[in-house]
Amino acid sequence: MLGVVLIVELVGVVLAAGAALLGGEPWPSPEGIALALGAGSFGTLGILGLYRGLAVGRMGIVAPVAAVLGVSVPVAAGLVLEGIPGPLQVLGIVTGIAAVIVVSRVPGPVGGRSGIEFALAAGVGIGGFNMLIGQLPEGEVLWPLVALRLMAVPIMILIVVLGRQAWRVPRGAIWPAIIVGAFDMVGNLSFLVAAQVGALAITALIASFYPVVTIVLAIAVLGERVTLSHALGIAMAVAAIALIAAG
Question: Please, is 22 exposed, middle or buried when counting C-beta atoms within 10 Å of its C-beta (0-12, 13-18, 19+)?
Answer without folding.
Answer: exposed
